[in-house]
Every structure is written in structure tokens, then in C-alpha cells.
Design goal:
Distance between the termini: 94 Å
Number of helices: 5
Number of strands: 26
Mean pLDDT: 88
Low-confidence stretches: 1-18
Helix content: 10-25%
Strand content: 35-45%
Radius of gyration: 27 Å
Number of domains: 3
């Protein structure tokens, strides 16, 4: 009986070894995970003896992803990890149950038992391959990397397939890398397919709309650039009611680049997820007053490739330097009492068409400097600030919302084409009230510059105003 019990326990233990997450390996390392966007790759249908193959497949995919625009420009913002998941069988389950299955000669039936229970023919569509064991996915992520930003599931089968949703899933078909990047468009950036996937997938999104008015369509700032337009979807169902920005985009067909509208949507998510300003100095400093210059520095700043960041240093409401990572202040030149030094970092990548962009993202470091006759103290803090300015064009009013951060003692100016300030107001954004409505109904319709400033920053963006005046 003891021998039989031992055999049973040994058998169950072997089954457990055959199907579980067993470890994690970092594929791309650009910095501390708290300061980067973290992609986690899970494998399914890889047996215990195929784990090195999984790591190699993950590396191939990572290299491919960061060759695609705009990910190639922001690859320094990402880490990539691979969680080793052992399945009992190699491959993926295929029941041959979808109406559009290609035939057993092209894709035979498979009863593969895998840890994530990935299956073809999901929801009646043959190419739709979905991991159905969400509990094992959650358990693996919780154990090895709970602070993920994007999950990708690579399925060890050569047959064509993929899916989006919470997890971007693809196979190892010859088009697998393209499938994965397409699915990341869904999962990471919330992009819609630019072929008509069916009424159940139709929704207002970055690259899908029912709006046909060129003055207010969500991608109006790209119209006419590199074939961006308002194209009707086709075919079937309610497709004629929906429109897309392009006819040759990766969200429509594999092997194509992302269109500019989708690139902008991806960059928006990158900006929202991470503050590129990682480390600054000094944070706290106390010293005797003398002639020693004080160095203020952005010690670690994640930069796009090529660098599209604009850096502006301001001291006592005056710009003192631009596009440098550090400056010096002479202690003798600092006035007695309190003063403030700030640095403002903004990504001006042309892929985000800032002129008509409704959201503005920037990083700020503020140093409070206190000087007495004999001593000088410095304390600094950083923040990621995100503004939303809508509607665009503005009609009778402008809604200004602070989506993250706090800004005090702000002034807003509207400047006409002749350079004249035609409207000024003051406001503060604190923790409880981060919305401000600017009444512009008394202004003439036309193009203006909206300037928002305080002692730490000064930003300006063109804006079109339409009024009933």
C-alpha cells in the first residue's frame, strides 16, 4: 500500500511538473521595472524539453517588435520578460469545429493538453486562437511578474492564428511576428481592426468611428497626410455605418506599417504609462553660502530614438536654458528668501501632431530654493503631468482638465494671429478640482494660440475656435 501510494504521488508530481509555470527570464533590460513599460511573454504548448525554444521564439519576437514604428523610437521605454510555462503536450487544441475550418489536410485535429488551454476555432472562427484557462494565466503572472503592462501569449504551433483582448495571442506561423504586433495594437493601444471584423467588434476608438465630418473626426489632424482619410468599412452587417482612417495599415492587413493615426494612438499609451524622467539631482541639499556653483541635473531621462524631447529650464519666471540635461546656478546670484527653479520636458515627436492634439504630456521637476545670509537649502520633486484640452475645434468654450499631477497658480492666455492677448484667466488645479471651463463665446471664430503658464512651465498650442458671434 505504501508503494502504491508512493507511485500515485510520484505520478501526480510528474503531471504537475509537466504543466506549470517554472521560471522567468528577462529578454530585454532597459532599467528597473518600476520605471519601464513591462511586456511579459507567456508560452503555451511548449513541453519541458522545449523551454529553450520558447526563449528563442520570445527573443525573435522582441527583436521584430522593436523594429516596427513607433515601437522602434520608444524601445528604451520597455522591458521584456518571458515566463516559462510547461505544457503536457506540444501544440494547441484544434477541434475542427468552426464553419471556416480549412480542412483536415491543411490543419488536422489536435487534442493537445496545454497549460493555458489554448484552442483554435474560438467563437466559431477558425483563425481565432484563444487561451481559455485564465486562472493559470493569472496565477503565472501573479507568481512571477504581477506588475506587467502588456501580456503576449506565444503558442507553439505552426498554424495561422491570433487574437487580441486582454492578452495578445499568436502562433508560430510564418506570419507570427506580424500577427503578434497586430494583436498588440488591440491589447496595448485599444486599436480596432481596419478590416470589418463584425458588428460585435464595431466601436468608437482611435481608428474607428461613425463620424464623417472632416472638421471633427477624431483623426482630423492627419487628414490628407500619407493617404489618411475617412474610408467606409466593408463588408457585411452594419459595416457601411463605420469608417477608418486608412486603407493600408497593419490593423487591416499583415506586412504593412501602422498608419499615422494608429502610431499616434500607440504613442499616447506610452506617454500615459511612463514618466521618462527617472532620476534628477539634487533631491535635498543643504550647504553654506559661498561661491560654489550649484548643479541641477536630469541624471536619467529616457529619450526616444531619435530624440524628440524639448527641455526648458526656468528660474524665477525666466527661461535660462533649453535642451540641456543640466545647468549651474551660482550661489551668490541666488536672491535671499524663497525662489523656484524648474525644468520642463515635453516629447515633440512629429508622429503625435501636437498642433491639433487634445492631450498634452510633460514631465516637470521643481526645486524650491531657500537662501539666508549664511545657508542655502534645496528640495526637489518630479511629476508627470497630463492635460486634456477639448473640444477641438473649440465651440463657445474650452474644457481644460488635468488628468494627472497638480498645478498651482496657472495663467491662461488666448493669443490671436496678430500676437495680441485677447483673453486671460487665472486658475489652479488641485487634488479635488482638476477641471476648468473657459468661456470663449465673446471671441471671433478663427485660429488662436492657447498659452498655459505658471512659474514652473510655459506651454503653447494652436487651437481653432468657433463661436456663434
Amino acid at each position: 500500500m505504501k508503494l502504491l501510494y508512493t507511485i500515485i504521488i510520484s505520478f501526480l508530481f510528474q503531471l504537475n511538473i509537466q504543466a506549470q509555470a517554472i521560471g522567468i527570464e528577462q529578454i530585454v533590460d532597459n532599467g528597473h521595472p518600476d520605471k519601464r513599460i513591462n511586456i511579459v511573454i507567456l508560452g503555451d504548448g511548449y513541453t519541458a524539453t522545449q523551454q529553450q525554444k520558447f526563449i528563442n521564439d520570445s527573443k525573435i519576437f522582441s527583436q521584430y517588435l522593436f523594429q516596427q514604428e513607433p515601437f522602434n523610437q520608444y524601445k528604451n521605454y520597455f522591458n521584456v520578460y518571458a515566463i516559462k510555462v510547461v505544457s503536457q503536450d506540444s501544440g494547441a487544441r484544434h477541434d475542427n469545429s468552426a464553419p471556416d475550418c480549412p480542412g483536415l489536410g491543411s490543419h488536422p485535429i489536435s487534442t493537445a493538453k496545454t497549460y493555458l488551454d489554448t484552442r483554435f476555432d474560438a467563437f466559431g472562427i477558425h483563425r481565432l486562437i484563444v487561451p481559455f484557462n485564465s486562472q493559470n494565466i493569472a496565477t503565472s503572472l501573479a507568481k512571477y511578474f504581477p506588475s506587467y503592462d502588456q501580456v503576449i501569449i506565444l503558442v507553439n504551433t505552426p498554424y495561422y492564428g491570433g487574437s487580441g483582448g486582454a492578452y495578445a495571442t499568436s502562433t508560430l506561423h510564418s506570419s507570427s511576428n506580424e500577427i503578434s504586433v497586430h494583436e498588440i495594437g488591440h491589447s496595448f493601444a485599444g486599436l480596432s481592426d481596419e478590416y470589418y471584423a463584425g458588428d460585435q467588434y464595431a466601436r468608437e476608438s482611435t481608428n474607428m468611428t461613425q463620424t464623417t465630418d472632416s472638421s471633427i473626426v477624431r483623426w482630423k489632424n492627419w487628414l490628407g497626410f500619407r493617404s489618411v482619410g475617412i474610408y467606409q468599412h466593408c463588408c457585411g452587417g452594419n459595416s457601411s455605418k463605420w469608417f477608418k482612417p486608412h486603407q493600408s495599415c497593419k490593423m487591416q492587413a499583415l506586412g504593412l506599417p501602422f498608419c499615422n493615426v494608429c502610431k499616434e494612438g500607440i504613442i499616447e499609451v506610452i506617454h500615459r504609462l511612463i514618466n521618462p524622467l527617472i532620476l534628477f539631482s539634487p533631491k535635498e541639499q543643504n550647504l553654506n553660502v559661498g561661491d560654489t556653483p550649484l548643479k541641477f541635473s536630469l541624471e536619467e531621462l529616457i529619450k526616444p530614438i531619435p530624440n524628440s524631447q524639448k527641455i526648458s529650464w526656468n528660474y524665477i519666471n525666466r527661461n535660462i536654458a533649453k535642451n540641456v540635461d543640466s545647468i549651474f546656478l551660482q550661489a551668490r546670484d541666488i536672491p535671499l528668501g524663497n525662489s523656484k527653479l524648474s525644468v520642463f520636458v515635453e516629447d515633440t515627436n512629429l508622429l503625435i501632431r501636437i498642433d491639433n492634439h487634445e492631450k498634452l504630456h510633460f514631465s516637470i521637476v521643481e526645486w524650491n530654493i531657500n537662501k539666508t545670509v549664511n545657508s542655502l537649502s534645496v528640495s526637489g520633486k518630479s511629476s508627470l503631468v497630463e492635460w486634456s484640452i477639448s473640444p477641438v475645434p473649440a465651440v463657445n468654450y474650452i474644457d481644460i482638465s488635468l488628468l494627472s499631477g497638480e498645478m498651482k497658480n496657472c495663467s491662461i492666455h488666448l493669443i490671436n494671429q496678430q500676437g495680441q492677448i485677447v483673453h486671460t484667466e487665472k486658475f489652479s488645479f488641485m487634488s479635488k478640482d482638476k477641471n476648468f471651463k473657459l468661456d470663449i463665446s465673446n471671441l471671433n471664430s478663427g485660429s488662436y494660440h492657447l498659452q498655459i503658464m505658471n512659474e514652473s512651465f510655459n506651454i503653447s498650442k494652436p487651437i481653432v475656435i468657433r463661436t456663434s458671434k
